[in-house]
Design goal:
Layout lengths: L1 E6 L3 H11 L4 E7 L2 H11 L3 E4 L8 H7 L7 E6 L5 H6 L4 E4 L4 H16 L1 H17 L16 E6 L2 E6 L5 E5 L2 E6 L2 E6 L2 H5 L7 E5 L2 E4 L3 E6 L5 E5 L4 E4 L1 H11 L4
Parallel strand pairs: 1-2, 1-3, 3-4, 4-5
Antiparallel strand pairs: 6-7, 8-9, 8-12, 9-10, 11-12, 13-14, 14-15
Helix pairs in contact: 2-3
Length: 261
């Protein structure tokens, strides 16, 4: 009987995990709606396993792990809608990475992996050490790059039933769609759950420029800019895509490319 804590800021996601765990040999110790609750619950209740959301307000999933004393670190299954954090999850040697939406079969496989991991005490000690070493040298998910940090060079995105690695320099432009961002490359488009402002903070400003509240372009693929009205321009990409440069972002783009606007 594994002792489990659920952490997710979405009520539906928490309820789904509770339903799925009802079919497993598990005791739910706590259900947490944010990172601060989660860190406190783990320290106090000492679970075997935590199903942990990554992108949460105030404290993200990786920051939760940093806040927990090493002696209390449990096994982790990340549960998230964000494809791009898969590599970091495996770098900290998480048990598994459940990408929403997932079904009962996929969940059961993750739970079985956790049971196997917890039976192997030698592996358990090694996993905790790897997690600690990684967290010590990595920023939080919600942080923008600090001095000396490297900007995004790749993202993990969903392509059909697979998750593939996408090189950021090959991305032509990003399009905001509510709480999602659509990634446009040559001939393909991918949707990730991410806010435009959060994404922008993680992109190299020498390579990417915000031209509209709904658009960020890769300057490498900008072919030309054409007047659209007395004070506005259309940005033309080399694949023929036309995007409007809004007045709000005109000055910022000028600062990136020179005083041509």
């Amino acid at each position: 009987m594994l002792k489990v804590i659920i952490v997710d800021d979405e009520p539906y996601a928490r309820a789904k995990l509770e339903r799925l765990l009802a079919d497993e040999e598990a005791e739910i110790l706590a259900v947490c709606a944010n990172g601060r609750e989660a860190a406190a619950a783990v320290e106090q209740l000492k679970p075997d396993l935590v199903f942990l959301d990554i992108q949460m307000p105030e404290m993200d999933g990786f920051e939760v792990l940093r806040a927990i004393a090493p002696v209390h670190l449990p096994e982790i299954v990340f549960v998230t809608a964000f494809d791009q954090y898969a590599l970091r999850a495996f770098e900290v040697n998480a048990v598994d990475y459940l990408l929403k939406p997932f079904d009962q079969e996929r969940f059961a496989a993750a739970f079985a992996r956790a049971e196997q991991r917890l039976r192997d005490s030698a592996s358990r000690s090694e996993n905790v050490q790897r997690l600690l070493e990684h967290l010590a040298r990595q920023p939080g998910v919600s942080d923008g790059p600090a001095a000396g940090d490297v900007y995004l060079e790749w993202l993990f995105v969903r392509k059909g039933h697979r998750v593939v690695k996408l090189s950021v320099p090959e991305i032509h432009w990003f399009e905001a769609e509510g709480n999602y961002v659509r990634i446009h490359t040559r001939g393909d488009a991918y949707l990730i759950r991410e806010k435009m402002m959060t994404l922008q903070a993680r992109l190299d400003p020498k390579r990417f420029a915000r031209i509209h509240r709904n658009a960020i372009v890769n300057l490498s693929f900008v072919k030309e800019m054409r007047p659209w009205s007395n004070s506005a321009f259309v940005v033309l990409l080399d694949d023929g895509t036309e995007l409007r440069l809004s007045r709000r972002y005109r000055g910022r783009l000028a600062a990136s490319i020179g005083e041509y606007l």
